[in-house]
Amino acid sequence: EAGVTQFPSHSVIEKGQTVTLRCDPISGHDNLYWYRRVMGKEIKFLLHFVKESKQDESGMPNNRFLAERTGGTYSTLKVQPAELEDSGVYFCASSQDFVTSGSRTDTQYFGPGTRLTVL
Amino acid sequence: AQSVTQLGSHVSVSEGALVLLRCNYSSSVPPYLFWYVQYPNQGLQLLLKYTSAATLVKGINGFEAEFKKSETSFHLTKPSAHMSDAAEYFCAVSRTGGGNKLTFGTGTQLKVEL
Lengths: 119, 114
Known about the structure:
Distance between the termini of chain A: 37 Å
Structural class of chain A: mainly beta
Largest interface: A-B, 30 and 26 residues
Structural class of chain B: mainly beta
Helix content of chain A: under 10%
Order of helices and strands of chain A: EEEEEEEEEHEE
Radius of gyration of chain A: 14 Å
Largest sheet of chain A: 7 strands, mixed
Number of helices of chain B: 0
Helix content of chain B: under 10%
Shape of chain A: globular
Shape of chain B: globular
Radius of gyration of chain B: 13 Å
Number of strands of chain B: 11
Largest sheet of chain B: 6 strands, mixed
Strand content of chain A: over 45%
Oligomer: heterodimer
């Protein structure tokens, strides 16, 4: 079974440009999370989808960030316009729905991340 | 609010020696606690998790961690380090009762030397 995949693996853009990151969760996983790690700091939560609905977007830094999950499958995270401080590694994770897994601590499976560099 | 502190951003051990990675947490509600490992160019992989059952939790690759409420700690140990254990390790906490967003520590890079 394929794990969580993310595209691209690396992206280098100029300040002011737009970048779109994509995450494909494990098939059948209703929960999808985005996290970000700025260099030298901790991995921070950005938002959580349950199917196509945003369950919690309390970690989104500002309105330059837009996340979507059309049809409850893959998700995109768009940064427009990008700023220098947006540089970092963006991780996506997915987990089963709580009913299927029987646990509210169902494991989050992480993708390899997208390394974004804004120049 | 919840937080995690990992003591030591870099830890170096000899092959065959004990591995001890420290994690202290802060939580106003009973926590769920996790250790993840990230090997180069890979995603985070769950090593083990504490969910209010047994306080000593055994994980993959010979790792284990003990939840100590009185010390608000969840340190990760392995009796004998192997070269393949070299990676970055993250401690994380989430709230009980759902939501499940993880709050991570800053990570500890483990180096294993011959």
